[in-house]
Amino acid sequence: MEKNIVKTARVATWENVGKSTNTQKILDAIKAVGLDFEVEKRPLFFGPNMKKIGDKFATVRTDKDGYLGIVGKGYEICQNETAFAFADYIDEKLKFTRGGMTYSGLCWVIGELPAINILGEDYTPCIVLQNSFNGKYKVRANIVALNTANYAQFNIGLYGIASTLTVRHTASLPSRMKQGQEALTSVREYMDGLRKVAEKYASIKMDKEQIEMFVSVLFPVKENMNEVAKANLLKNRTAFLACYDDAGNKTHRGNAWGLIRAYADYMTHTIGKDTKTKFERKFMKTTLSNKKFGGFLKKLEGVTGVKVA
């Protein structure tokens, strides 16, 4: 049974999982967080006569017993060192701070670039590298903007600006350098887009009645909802409003950006007792997907009548 963990402060979701590092070289980073292993495919056998299963293979670490997953014959292994090698060519200021492997087999490393000011606050552009050996996750990188004031994570899906980078397997130095430059360009475009979106949402003023209406839309009490479900919904509504009313959000109360900041804070952080697995699930949901903002922004648009991102 997993030991309960009590979270007492706001931190980035990845601070509750993985291991820390502080390096500017990806190879040093994967060694520090325990991802410097090799993986190979091995055939599977079954039955008393150990008959080979022709189209299925186990992916196995070469340094220890146990398998990482079952894959098909066409599955190609991409070692972590190869998958993440392009990151050394993104920017000399990129610093790798944390990484590890989740219960579901996701290998990940966080790289941080210098903070960018948006509406008077610093946002750290983070590149989340990911790989796996079980076929569940593609080799890719996500862009996340981390608010350094409250460590809320922003990976809003901006129209026309991707928050996910496709990582190509390559051993060629020129190709890796080009891919690193493309990644840096994507980060800059994303952060510039986030700044513009923040400025536009901050200009959308909302009175008390509109905010109350939006909260009721965001957390709707439905017909035939039982008392337990209703109590949980009201608890979540209270938690969201606490984020909105937080002192750090004072400047943005009364505008749509304040509601987005509150939602990022609400979705990023868990208060109270939790387990390592739950923290890992929150890390993956919050950090590796921009879908969490999709429904939120549509509801916000419905109340304000303004479509921005």
Account of the protein in words:
The structure is a single chain. This protein has 309 residues and is an alpha+beta fold. It has 2 domains: 10-43 and 58-199, no CATH class; 204-304, no CATH class. Helices cover 35% and strands 25% of the residues. The protein has 8 helices and 13 strands. The strands form 3 sheets. Strands 2, 6, 7, 8, 9, 10, 11 and 12 form an 8-stranded antiparallel beta sheet that branches. The chain has a 3-stranded antiparallel beta sheet with strand order 3-4-5, with no helix packed on it. The protein is globular, with a radius of gyration of 22 Å. The two termini are 43 Å apart. The relative contact order is 0.15.
**Spatial extent as radius of gyration:** 22 Å
Mean pLDDT: 88
Regions with pLDDT < 50 over 5+ consecutive residues?
A: 1-8
Structural class: alpha+beta
Helical content class: 25-40%
User: What is the tally of helical segments?
Assistant: 8
The amount of beta strand, in percent, is 25-35%
Oligomer: single chain
The overall strand count is: 13
Major β-sheet annotation: 8 strands, antiparallel
Distance between the termini: 43 Å
